[in-house]
Amino acid sequence: xxxxxxxxxxxxxxxxxxxxxxxxxxxxxxxxxxxxxxxxxxxxxxxxxxxxxxxxxxxxxxxxxxxxxxxxxxxxxxxxxxxxxxxxxxxxxxxxxxxxxxxxxxxxxxxxxxxxxxxxxxxxxxxxxxxxxxxxxxxxxxxxxxxxxxxxxxxxxxxxxxxxxxxxxxxxxxxxxxxxxxxxxxxxxxxxxxxxxxxxxxxxxxxxxxxxxxxxxxxxxxxxxxxxxxxxxxxxxxxxxxxxxxxxxxxxxxxxxxxxxxxxxxxxxxxxxxxxxxxxxxxxxxxxxxxxxxxxxxxxxxxxxxxxxxxxxxxxxxxxxxxxxxxxxxxxxxxxxxxxxxxxxxxxxxxxxxxxxxxxxxxxxxxxxxxxxxxxxxxxxxxxxxxxxxxxxxxxxxxxxxxxxxxxxxxxxxxxxxxxxxxxxxxxxxxxxxxxxxxxxxxxxxxxxxxxxxxxxxxxxxxxxxxxxxxxxxxxxxxxxxxxxxxxxxxxxxxxxxxxxxxxxxxxxxxxxxxxxxxxxxxxxxxxxxxxxxxxxxxxxxxxxxxxxxxxxxxxxxxxxxxxxxxxxxxxxxxxxxxxxxxxxxxxxxxxxxxxxxxxxxxxxxxxxxxxxxxxxxxxxxxxxxxxxxxxxxxxxxxxxxxxxxxxxxxxxxxxxxxxxxxxxxxxxxxxxxxxxxxxxxxxxxxxxxxxxxxx
Length: 696
Ligand code: ADP
Ligand code: MG
Description:
Ubiquitin-like (UB roll); 10-stranded mixed β-sheet; 7-stranded mixed β-sheet; globular
């Protein structure tokens, strides 16, 4: 394998360089225009593009192509077709037409649709997203696509994302025009997703049914050591991990993914990878590919990559920090800027975002609601389930002074004159950091920290884009009719900040005081995914998505159904796994130990009636009690699981799993974890927390 990074970087991607080199000039020009404006491709050039793509892919060793898409399962899907086309009866040629490039049709009746597609119309259609580059992986040309039904309803995560990017672009351009920008053609949404993950030894993993079926441990007493020494965070990389990471970087670079930063995270065996940001839809594709590569390359090293939000109780779980910003003419719009006009623009966009987050707290929460993420949010290691926004001390003081109409008391040294009436000067400061905030301004971008490590970032970004587009739409409607745009903008900034300042919070988001304070402020605290999903179809949310053309009511309804269904399925798998592990592994192990102890006591007594058997008796008594508790909990769990699974309505079913099944699972776990610490190590049937986290 070549190791010269600049040589391998993007070598498997049909990117701009390759297009320029391989396509006729006119075709290249037309295609790049399509990409830049987000339009659909001119059918007359499709054959030429397809053929060039095929020739290039074949040189890279491809024999197949696939339309790669993001159904609502949370993972990607692909179906491979060979390029071959028969010639006569005994020969084939490698062919790929424009039609095959642009459009695909697949029997997709097994993908979740939430009732969107009747079974008699089982076909799903894929359409090329030219703004996301095609690539070759494992002998196949991958064509990133959107996935929809016959009637054009989106069956995937990507289509609403692309629509939301368009919506935000349209509204942001209106604002830029008001500020005199006549040249910008497209406002780009930039996203960089920092990905956390755990690594575990493959042999140990294989012996844990919970990791295999549920992706997380469902049992396990704490190891003597956790993350309390803080010796893992940014610590030196273990040899095996370093080798894995090096291979991972290389693979990602080949795919044109800017894997930039890697380090150990807070919990033992936890790590992070951050890429350099990209346009939102590309960042989404790249994050999905990154997750796929993490798993695949770990296996090559005899390791398994766990992307679950909470693989182990008692130590930190994994999230994904979704860094988000807007850019126009290659300049970051969330950079406070140096000129007065830039500053006014910055404040207007900032106000739009603050308003968006406040107005759509519920949707932000829904976008990160996932059964696995419920174990993380609000448990003192990740942001609470309450959505709030952090701006830092300086910006906070500025906002306060705008709202109160008082002078801004920032440091004189770095002041900039904002130059519009009634808005004071703003000191640029980017150093504030608050790790406990769900949504933090970090100098020139926002970091959405509630996202779960395993989640597709398409939805969080779709929600953000759409909510901000709505704020900007309202702003533009008002400002376009204003006599004096500058003073109207200043007033608008002031009014918006005053109306939405309740969402701003700079304190400790992990504290109980914040929960109480948030309640006083009337902020939502949607503790579980199920609580969050229930808000999805609220009238204001339906209006938001449908009015901006991002999702229709029926597209939303189908997603709501899938959220509830998916939640119930995940908890159901966990419950069934617990039943199997407890009844077939843990209870028998405890009984074996009890029997050994009883034998020992009998033998001791036979040897000498004066020998003490107090230890055996005490252990037998305690283990017998716990083992019976576990047995009863297993029986109860079986009963409740059956009852929950039988509920027809998806929402009611999810509620039952959340409110009834999970508490029984917790009860079972408590009994088994106590059994674990009393049972002889040799007899314990699975690797322990210590084995899993420290023997990598
Ligand atoms: P940290 O948040 O740990 O301080 P950085 O600030 O370097 O780290 O950035 C973290 C992530 O944010 C990276 O993936 C980076 O590419 C991304 N990022 C930086 N600038 C932007 C931007 N303008 N838009 C979107 N993401 C960005
Ligand atoms: Mg960060």
